[in-house]
Amino acid sequence: MNNMPKILIFAGAALIIVGLLWSFLGRFIHLGRLPGDIVIDKGNVKFYFPIVTCILISVILSLISYIVRWFMK
């Protein structure tokens, strides 16, 4: 039970940092429109699959998870 406040504080701080970075860097990095994302536009049907964006988010979340586990030791 002693780790729960630490986890909540870290999660809150991480969300604040991500929100600030997203608002400032969102102008330069268009998450969801990265090179490698698949877009098929045929007539009035548009298929969009952001594969590179998914990989990037997965890597970032894995790093955050690793850092959290490292701090909890």
Proportion of residues in helical segments: 55-70%
How would you classify the helix and strand content by structural class?
Answer: alpha+beta
Order of strands, main sheet, comes to: 1-2
Uncertain runs are none
The radius of gyration over CA amounts to 17 Å
What does the main sheet amount to?
2 strands, antiparallel
Summed up, the domain count is 1
Q: What is the straight-line distance between the termini?
A: 15 Å
Helical run tally: 2
Question: How would the global form be characterised?
Answer: elongated
Percentage beta strand: 5-15%
The count of DSSP E runs of length 2 or more, i.e. the number of strands, is: 2
**N-to-C SSE string, H for helix and E for strand:** HEEH
Mean pLDDT reading: 86
Can you offer a commentary on this structure?
The chain has 73 residues and is α+β, with helices and mostly antiparallel strands. The protein has one domain (3-71). It is 60% helix and 14% strand. It contains 2 helices and 2 strands, in the order αββα. It has helices spanning 3-25, 51-71; strands at residues 38-42, 45-49. A two-stranded antiparallel ribbon has the order 1-2. β1 (38-42) and β2 (45-49) form a beta hairpin. The longest helix is centred in the N-terminal third of the chain and has 23 residues, at 3-25. The radius of gyration is 17 Å and the shape is elongated. The mean pLDDT is 86.
Quick tags:
transmembrane, transmembrane helix, two-stranded antiparallel sheet, 14% strand, 2 strands, membrane, alpha+beta, DUF2905, 73 residues
Task: Give a short overview.
With 73 residues, the protein is an alpha+beta fold. The chain contains 2 helices and 2 strands.
